[in-house]
Design a protein that fits this description.
mainly alpha, about 50 residues, about 40% helix
Length: about 50
Amino acid sequence: MMAKQIKLSQTVYELVTAYPEVVSVLVEIGLDGVTNPALLKYCGAFYDIA
């Protein structure tokens, strides 16, 4: 099994789309907007992890 790797240049939307299991981690660190599909699609497309 290969380890999953993320790039800090990925947008939040790309990250959540590629790895849905990361949503709980993002919520835990305070990015609770990722649970709102409209907010994720709009804002998540502009913001990256870095």
